[in-house]
Amino acid sequence: MTTPDEPPQPETLRRFRRVRRSMAAGLLASLSGSFVVAGVVPGAVAAGALSIVWLPVIQSVETLEDMSSPAVARLLRDRNPGHVLVACEAFDAAACALALALIYLTPIRPAAIFIAYVLVASAVPLFVDVAEELFTGEIAKISRGEALRFNISIYAMIGFTGSLVAKPLGSVLATAALPAALGINLGASLVGLLLRLRSVRSMSVFDDEAPEQASDGETDEPQPKAAHPSAPLGKIIGAAGPGSPAVSGLLACSTAIVTGYLAQWVVHSMAHPSGAMAALLVATGVGATIGPYLARPATVRERFTAGAGLLLTARIAALGAILAIALMTGAGSTARFTAMLVLNAGFGATVVASSVVQATARQSHYQGHALAQAVGWSHSFAAAGTFIGVWCGLALGVQCSPVVGILLAAAVALAAMARLSPRSQTSTRDAAMATEL
């Protein structure tokens, strides 16, 4: 049996990496179907198949569900996260199959059945997100390097699969046939279910022989353990560092103030707005795919605070450059759009890289119930921040005149940077806090 200070044996690492790859592949399959469905809704609204009222309704339902993350984390903290992921895939596949059956066997309008499926299945991503991070926490107990690689791979897959492939496909299918989108989602869910079952069976091999923690060469620092199964709400909210819920909420708010609205602003002056929007989506997807790899230097040696600070500095610099473009009223629309393509990719990369640092920091500093609490409240704060940011951006008219919105987004990002406490809250002190919790 490997001790915490010894790296796992080569055969153990090979088996463990197979588990990680199977779970990552299962996530990729699951996300592919989910993103196709997500792309259908705005496409169907644009085509007139769905009323525009469904956009804010679905967004509001998903936001309210995300705010319940602490309750979901408490519910899942004593359960095997791998089994939860399998159950989520099975539920989604069953709901999708039922929707398809109703479309073909009943006279109910396909659009109504599709919306009902979207609302019923809207809670699945919440359980998947929480369970996925708890599963990565289990990986971190055995190998923090493998946990880091898992985080990087899934965030990169989300960027590539979502923005570059599945969502555009869903938008196309919205004008052709809703059952086709549901069929793709059903097939993807079944593939994801099989892959997750395989990884859960393989992971069970480590239950009796895995150490509390181990290193595989990615880090040489011992991992602290959470000595208490729970922590007061005040300590969770008041925690400093990249993994704190307050930082998650502030960064989500900063991003939501400008995300989406800036794209509308920049394409408004283009001759072909739809084509320009597609190009911006591709740029965002490229940034989201590259972003996770930018987080690797910051996380590989657990320099979470310094890495997060550097990424936030880059984010604020990108916002400053966008502000400069907004103030240059004499700039041509083509030149402004070209600059925004580059800045959009860069901004998206820093946002995703920050998410990787935040998730890895939580998984490294907390274990057990403390990790479940940190994950739950971080997701809840992020949902609340997104909700506030979206409505602030709309109220400020960022899509028409982005200057004030950009300044507010930068100010909120600076507030998040202040919560990192670079002088007094190093990763060592964060680890001590985790031990206290």
TrEMBL record:
<feature type="transmembrane region" description="Helical">
    <location>
        <begin position="371"/>
        <end position="396"/>
    </location>
</feature>
<feature type="region of interest" description="Disordered">
    <location>
        <begin position="208"/>
        <end position="229"/>
    </location>
</feature>
<dbReference type="InterPro" id="IPR036259">
    <property type="entry name" value="MFS_trans_sf"/>
</dbReference>
<feature type="transmembrane region" description="Helical">
    <location>
        <begin position="111"/>
        <end position="128"/>
    </location>
</feature>
<keyword id="KW-1133">Transmembrane helix</keyword>
<feature type="transmembrane region" description="Helical">
    <location>
        <begin position="245"/>
        <end position="263"/>
    </location>
</feature>
<feature type="transmembrane region" description="Helical">
    <location>
        <begin position="172"/>
        <end position="195"/>
    </location>
</feature>
<feature type="transmembrane region" description="Helical">
    <location>
        <begin position="84"/>
        <end position="105"/>
    </location>
</feature>
<feature type="transmembrane region" description="Helical">
    <location>
        <begin position="23"/>
        <end position="41"/>
    </location>
</feature>
<feature type="compositionally biased region" description="Acidic residues">
    <location>
        <begin position="208"/>
        <end position="221"/>
    </location>
</feature>
<feature type="transmembrane region" description="Helical">
    <location>
        <begin position="275"/>
        <end position="295"/>
    </location>
</feature>
<feature type="transmembrane region" description="Helical">
    <location>
        <begin position="337"/>
        <end position="359"/>
    </location>
</feature>
<keyword id="KW-0812">Transmembrane</keyword>
<protein>
    <submittedName>
        <fullName>MFS transporter</fullName>
    </submittedName>
</protein>
<keyword id="KW-0472">Membrane</keyword>
<feature type="transmembrane region" description="Helical">
    <location>
        <begin position="402"/>
        <end position="420"/>
    </location>
</feature>
<feature type="transmembrane region" description="Helical">
    <location>
        <begin position="307"/>
        <end position="331"/>
    </location>
</feature>
